[in-house]
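Can't paste images in this forum, so I'm doing it all in text. The chain is below; anyone willing to post the predicted structure tokens underneath?
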Amino acid sequence: MSGESPHGCRAGGWDPLGPAVCTAEAAQLIERIVAAVRAGDGVAIRTLLQQLADVADTETLLLQHHRLIEDLHR
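Text version of the structure:
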């Protein structure tokens, strides 16, 4: 994986000022979580968070935080 993906992930090491490194699977789950939060779908949020827990690391959780805050200010 090189460069930035459509989900805001990038290859390489963690940079606190840049987007987090994550897998495509985690990035897709994060985008689905953001959409579920926006829709207020608690069941979907819980289900997706359980799935994310299986693949998440610190960088993935930082990206999730970033995406939720970013979506809040839309």
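The chain has a mean pLDDT of 81. DSSP finds three helices and no strands in the chain.
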